[in-house]
Amino acid sequence: MSTVPITVTYTGNDVADATFTLGDAAKGKESEALKNLYSSPYNLKKNDQYYGIVSDYNSNSPYINMVLYHVASKLDLQWNVDASVQSSVKLSSITLTGLSSGGYLFKPLENTTATSTYDETFSLDDGSQWYGRQATYVIPVKSTDGNYQFPMTLTNGAKTPNTTTTAKATVTPSAINKVYVPWMLGTVTVKKTW
Q1: Cα(99)–Cα(97) distance, rounded to whole angstroms?
Q2: pTM for the whole thing?
Q3: N or C: which end of the chain has fewer CB within 10 A?
Q4: What are phi and psi of 90, to 5 degrees?
Q5: What is the torsion angle, in degrees rounded to the nearest 10, for the CA atoms of residue 150, residue 173, residue 103 and residue 68?
């Protein structure tokens, strides 16, 4: 488990509106901190009521019987440089930009604004310059079109100095799942040089 502190705040009477931000101790290890952050989604129902309700409250042994779920989504990023451009494209890094280090604690699918943004860079070597896979944990933030977007910068180490280009991965949320954060798979395919 992560021991990275978070700050939780909410106003009003509804705890479901609580938001969080990662503390300064998370700098450089945001993914690890997010991976170990759990809560109970406010809209998960059991027998038509919130499943985290206190049971048997009037007895000597009131209890809450519940399972906690991830607040952050797992983003599984795969990349592949087409064989036709491998002589002129050798990825040296992929940087996800503008990731959110905070959001709703009990409404993880309802974030529409990134909070305290950070970037995460995957450094690549000769064994992963043309194809590879890396997973990280991110707060899903919906854009105005309702999709999750992940801007990134790709660095081509085949040239001196290195050159960069930007791209944006888009993930469409599930129409069925309205409670749990998704596991997201993204594939970056490079077919031209820059």
Answers
A1: 6
A2: 0.87
A3: N
A4: -130, 100
A5: -130
Residues contacting 172, CB < 8 A, separation 6+: 146, 147, 148
d(CA 54, CA 58): 10
Q: How far apart are CA 63 and CA 160, in angstroms?
A: 63
Contact residues for 166 (Cβ-Cβ < 8 A; gap 6+):
151, 152, 153, 154
Tokens linked to 159:
């040239």
CB atoms within 10 A of CB 98: 13
The pLDDT tens digits for 22-57 are 988 899 999 999 999 998 888 887 777 776 666 666
* String of DSSP letters for 47-108: TTEETT--BSTTSSS-B-----EESSEEEEEEEEE-GGGTTT--EEEEEEEEE-SEEESS-T
Q: Which region holds residue 146: left if phi is over 0, alpha if psi is between -120 and 50, else beta?
A: left
